[in-house]
Amino acid sequence: MTVTTTGAPGGADRFRALLPAHLWALDDRSEGTLQALLSAVAEELAVLEGDLGDLYDGWFVETCEEWLLPYVADLIGLAEPLPDLGDGVSWRTVVANTLSHRRRKGTATVLEQLAGEVTGWQARAVEYFRLLAVSTHVRHPRPDRPAVASLRHAERLDHLGRGHDRRVDRSVPPPDLTDPARGAFDPLARSADVRSVGRGRGRHNLPSVGVVLFPLRTRLVGPDSAEQPLGDRWSAVRAVDGGYRVDPLGRTTPLFPSGRSRRDTDRLAREEDLPVPLRPRRLLALLTAARRGEVAPDLLPVRVRVARLGPATVEQPTELEPQRLRVCGLEDLAPVEGTQVSVDTVTGQLTAYQDGQPAPQLDLFVRYHYAALADVGAGTHDRGRIHTQVLAADGHRYGNVLGVITVRADAEPSGTVATSLADGLVLAHGLWEAAGSATAGTTVVVAVGDNASHPGDLTATVPAGARLVLVAAACPAPGHPAAAAHFYRPDGLRPHLAGPLAVEGGTDSGIVLDGFLLDGDLTVRPGQLSRLAVAQSTLAGRITVTSGDEGDNGRLRVEVVRSVVHAVELPERVPVLNVTESVIDARAAAPNDDRPGPRAVMAPGAALSIDGSTVRGTVAARTIDGTDSLIDGIAVAEQRQTGCLRHCYARPGSRLPRRFHCVPADDRAPLEPVYVSMDPGSPYYLALAPACPAEITHGGEGGTEMGVHHHLHRPLRVRAVREHLAAYVPAGLEIGIIGS
Question: CB under 8 Å to 449, separation ≥6 — which residues?
Fold first, then answer.
């Protein structure tokens, strides 16, 4: 029987029923000696019971600790090593399903399922020997395998080319195995290719089986259901060249279908199960089904709302019916009056029409899905873990939270709720004024709880000794018990700040910016700010620091964590710049320019630390430390006796401190990184291509890749899936891993 203790003071109560009542009466007269003794015994018993419970849980793969999984795997004869594959990947499912997988050895479904469990990505198995154009017996015709392609069914040819992603850099011819969708859904029969699929050289051959990996993750921008109001989760579009783009920064980005959890593992994965770009013909099929009532409009991958017509005529926000959504290039406008929107799934472009005429002045809000290889920059992914780490980096200097200000465009203003970020900063300043001289060590959180575009050109001021946290997060309603505990959830939101942001602070003050799309520069004005942390945000402009009569920010520590920034420019007085798992891309405006590029990091007086990041452009700092990073530009360290680069790439001609396992080994080696895409709107933005030299793709610590995707451990995942699938491949067949 398990008995729960009630803590040290009442721990002896669990023994009260086990002893005669007169002993407790005597103990009450003797100042509780027996009570104190049994309380100590109860504490030790609770520790023993906890250890026994943990020991029992350790016998089962569903309840054991993560460090016990290799021991459980050894019990079932899983001899392959279980390496660390990075964030979000656990071996628990692999170990739990090993016996089930062994019963289905030799089938394509088990190859597909095991590949997904090992890598944490979705996968599809393709038996390429079934796609060979061969002479068939008259008694066993193969009408599904014609030797000549039919052009009457154009939807079968959508995945043959790369037209679904126009942003892939065409200056670098990609190899045949770059596009995972092409390898997974190519329906045409081919002539035999005798090259080895295991080496990535060929596919269609009698012994060839391919496992296509899909490393992208789809994210929803917008409400989870139709009941949520307009300003809560719907994202405002960006007016560009007479049209609109779903990306608030105006970038061209492909749309993706709504991701869904797949439970049926007895069949091979289909297109709707995988994170592949939304084909125009697939969107047309979904819209046609919705118009017939066969699909609920809430399930459409793209939804559009119209809020306002012109600057004066205000209308009630309404969502467009499926009949008013048209597919660009495949449909003409419907013969109806009112608003219609044409959707281009390839570029994320929208074109609005009012009564058949172009309407560039509509206020449109969208709900859509995008995809990314890694959760770097602003996004609707769960940002809680990184946000907690960024806050904890300040230690306990800011432990007292004065309040959480909620900013929502559709909210009712109150003492803790504002409708704009400017009003939210005013409320935050009011909390500090109310605290008076007790502001030292306090924190005020301004949480933006929608995906709206807020006006920019704002200034955030922090008093001495305080910290301001600007975060994209959902807060409970006022009066909710969680609101009193200063609870907020940084998940599902990606607000846009349409303009620059200026910050300033007093002595020993700090500012954290987390989860924003910033369409402008982030400027630190003269003052004595001690810390500026830009986390999980995307800045179309630069991070700059200025000096003046109010102070030179001489103790400022600038941190860039999981963010995408155009450039960083610091004066000589700023001493520290840390870049962690981020992108600083000063060449984004000219992706095909092979020159070293403009200035990416100018910090002549700072100790620069670059960890698992990609920097494109020239770099200058007082000292440079780097680990698992790509410096795609000329880097110059003023003091080369201090600092070290470990497992990094820097362009020839750079003047850097000592290097450890870096590439190129000398300035004469012509190694350069090759990217899948250098367009910031592409899901594969700055991802290393298969054509990239192996010294870079496997040159990171532990055999991982260098650059911003180092934390994904992609090479380790591919290596692990090769080792684990070897025991499940039918005899005489060869397996190839595609799309990694």
Answer: 232, 406, 407, 408, 411, 472, 473, 474, 475, 493
pLDDT tens for residues 476-513? 877 677 666 788 889 889 999 999 999 999 999 999 99
Q: Which pTM was predicted?
A: 0.87
Asked if 550 contacts 523 with a C-beta cutoff of 8 angstroms, the reply is no
CA distances from 149 to 110, 129, 343, 344, 619 (A): 31, 17, 29, 27, 52
**Token couple for 700:** 């990171």
614: its two tokens: 């990609």
Cβ(423)–Cβ(382) under 8 Å?
no
Distance CA 525, CA 505 (A): 8
**Does residue 132 sit in helix, strand or coil?**
strand
| Residue 348 in tokens | 């994320």
Tens-place pLDDT, residues 61-102: 888 888 888 888 888 888 766 777 777 678 888 888 898 889
**In 10 A of CB 263, how many CB atoms?**
5
- Could you please report the per-residue DSSP string of 523-564? EE-SS-EEEEEEES-EEEEEEEE--BTTB--TT-EEEEES-E
Gyration radius of the chain over CA positions: 29
Q: How far is CA 411 from the centre of its chain?
A: 28
Sorted by where each begins, the domain ranges of the chain are 11-57, 71-215+730-738, 218-372, 384-718
Q: What are phi and psi of 481, to 5 degrees?
A: -55, -35
d(CA 264, CA 373): 25
Q: State the DSSP code for 154.
A: G
